[in-house]
Amino acid sequence: MQVRFGVLGPVVAWDDTGAQVALKGPKHRAVLARLVVARGRVVPVSRLVDDLWEEPPPGAVAAVRTFVAALRRALEPQRSPREPAQLLLTEGPGYALQVAPDAVDAWRFEDEVTAAPAAPPHGALERLDRALSWWRGPAYADFEDEPWARGERSRLEQLRLNAIERRAEALLALGRPADVVPDLDAHVAGHPWREEAWRLLALALYRAGRQRDALAVLRRARGLLLEQLGIDPSPRLRRLETDILRQADRVNEQSGSPDPDQVWADATAAYDRTVASGSRARLESTVGLLRGLAVAGPSGLEAAREQRVAAIAAAERLGDPELTARVIGGFDVPAIWTRSDDPEQAARIVTAAERSLAGLRPGAADATRARLLATIAVESRGTQAARGPEAAREAELIARRLGDPALLAFALNGAYMQTFHRAGLAPERDQIGAEIVALSTRHSLPTFEILGHLIRLQARSALADFAAADAHAAAAEELAARHERPLVGVFTHWYRALRLAAADASPRAVEAAYRDAAAQLATAGMPGVQRGLLPLALLCLRVWHGLPADVDDDTDWGPYAPWSRPLVLLARNRRADAAAALRQTPDPPRDLLFEALWCLTAEAAVALADRVMMKRAQAALAPAAQELAGAGSGMLTVGPVAHHLDRLAAALGPTP
Burial level of 263, CB count in 10 A (0-12/13-18/19+)? Predict the structure, then answer.
């Protein structure tokens, strides 16, 4: 029997005829829901007991086993008593629900929403309509007050809100603005802080010929944001208001401007007719296309990553080192995050770049050599290799000597990626960002200009200069709106959550902002940024406010597990295990979260009176005494480094 599960509303199960499966009482459904939340991971019986009862009764473990047995009989009625269960499995100390990815409505919903941006408007609309139709009420509606369901309910709700807005975008792309207005009107009424919803509603009204109503919507949005949150509307909202006042769309229609899609179709058709198949020119042109694709949006970024390696391999097969060098170095896409989305791929690119450098003839262009070196510097980010800083310095020297602004901007990106060899280097990164901004402004390099503003946003945040950081966030968003760089909003969205945290807003408000930012990131195509970031941000928030690290067993900490584990174990009163985990904690990687991870280690060391680890943390953090820990990421913070240094000093006592 093929069983399907529904959690987008009250928790239910359906058999292969579509009939509901009788799941008995609320505790049975709670066990099932908890296992769905775990997404196939094992949930220990002890955890299930804690989640099902505030005060577990005697015999709670036996009761859980009874619930599981009843669920197995309901979900697999044809299974004989001695036959192993196929869905609800016993694994070690607990249970896991092993079902196909399409067996749970929430999982199907997430897959459809994630795939929608890559589809043409008709396909995106079909996917989103189908996905939204699966909602029967609030997610996990029976368990809205349960701590174990809270995070997943919030995440799914944010994805649902994003899906509603993406559906509106698809309808607008299909020329159906009147169909957008009713749904978005209700959407902004229920969720008035979602700026993108206000923007889409105003745009739909304008395109439906209701210019006055569109302007009224924008005024309502501005009033709510200013009066309730004390913040100005985003540059995208302000730009839309300006465009409406100028009747930009209608001017374009009256001027008889050619359709951009038709221009693209004509140009690519001409290219196919003119440039021979398999030629070197086609390969080099592909790199230019991939460069644009990488900044066009989530699906574009993922496709560009995959095709970049294929393009390098194709160039190497032709046996022309200089062509390979141009293909590698031509992908000068700015990078702002210090952890690679695909470390293995990055290592392959570095190896290919080194081969190309070695194969260049003595008279090869210095610019080609510098682009390869800058590529090595950027792709070596987050590693301990000495080659990264060395390549960055050499690329920058060549670029300055040649006076090539685009090359220098790329080389400075490599230099930025190699400024994490110790704590406290935010001022140095700020100088690099300032030079990139000035250079890019003078020479019309908008993509690098955005990079410069994001670097300065990070650096000024680390230095607690939020007035300057706000200005850089606004400048980056303004440029992103003008040049259609949607991924910039992922970083500024997280920055605004960090801003709330730094303003000492209530932990509940900050947590909601982090979850909203994480929902935006979930479909951005940046696994190196996404994985483990939300749990880390929430942990940092709790540590800063002196709260225990109370998290689920199935939390995916991603690469941050070694630094979170001691605190999580401490929160569960497992001091011996926490001490052992702390002793095994490595030094944090040299990246944007270096100070934050050291502060988490410091907190665990103080709690466990581990003097060796306390002294290591103190020495590592001392150069950053004037910074906000983690704020240099532009994403999260664990409070002032000085606060953690003071705690370390107090725990260690006076120096003998």
Answer: exposed
